[in-house]
Amino acid sequence: MGIRKLGYIGLNVADPDAWADLLGRTLGIGVTADKVGTEEVALAELDEFKYRLALHPSTEDSPREVGWIVDSPRELDRITRRLLDAGFAVQDGSAEETALRGATRLRWFTDPVGYRVELAIGETKVRTGPARPADARPGATGLGHFVLAGPKLDELRELYESVLEFRLTDYRAPGLYFLRCNTTHHSIALAHAETPSIHHIEIEHGSIDDVGRAYDRAQAHGVPISISLGRHMNDKAISFYVRNPSGFHLEIGCGGIDVDEDWLPHDFGTSDVWGHHHTDVNPFASPAS
To answer: Where would I find the VOC domain in this sequence (predicted)?
Structure first.
C-alpha cells in the first residue's frame, strides 16, 4: 500500500537534441513531443505508458521533478497527512501538469535538498509497446531507479523511510543507502554530497544481449562510457554507464533481483562482483576500495 513504484523523472535540459540523439541512436528509444502551455516537452518512450523521462528545454541542466505512483486516492490522502505532520507543505499539481503526467490526481512537495517530489495516481497507456529498431528488441523496458545525492542525507532518509514508508534494502559504507517501495531491490538510493544532484538514472533493459548491443552502439557512436560494463554486488544487475548531455550518468542495465518480506538489511561491502571501472573518481567509493 502507499507508494507503488517510481513513475517518472523530469529534467531541465540545455540540449534536448543531444538527449534525443543519445536515446535514439544508442538505446533505440523513441522520443515524442507534448506541450505544457507554449513549452514543447520531449517524452522518452520506455514502455507502453505515456512517458518515464521528460526533457524540458532550459538554459541550464537540472532535475525538475521526481514522480512516484500511489496506489489509490485514499493512500494519497494518507501520505499527504503524513507529510503535513512532518512539516512538509503539500500542493496540488496544475491541470496541465496532471494531464502531461497521464495522471488523474497529482500532488507535490519539496524535499530537504530542494527538489520537487510528486505523488501521482493513475498512468495513461498510449501504446501497446514502444517501437524499437531490429537490433534493440525488447531493448529498454522501463525506468529502474535513480541515485539522489545531497548534503542532508539524514533528512532525506527520514523523509523516505519514516514518512514515505520506503524500506531499507541494504547499504554500504561510508554512506550509501538503497531503498525500495515494492519487491524491486531498490527504486532510489541516497548518498551524501556537498551539493544536491542526481548521480544517475537507470533504464531497465530486457536482457544482457540488449545491454551488450547498447554497449556496442555507444562505442560505435562515440558516446562517453563513464563506468564500464560490470555486475553490482548488491542487486546483481549487469550494466554500464554513459555520460549524458546533462553531465550526469545514465545506467543501462538488466537482471536486478527482487527481494521479499524476509530480507534483512545489511552492509554488502564490495561494490561490484566484477567490472564497473570508473573513468573519473567514484564519489561513493568505500574505504576498502
So the answer is: 5-122, 142-255
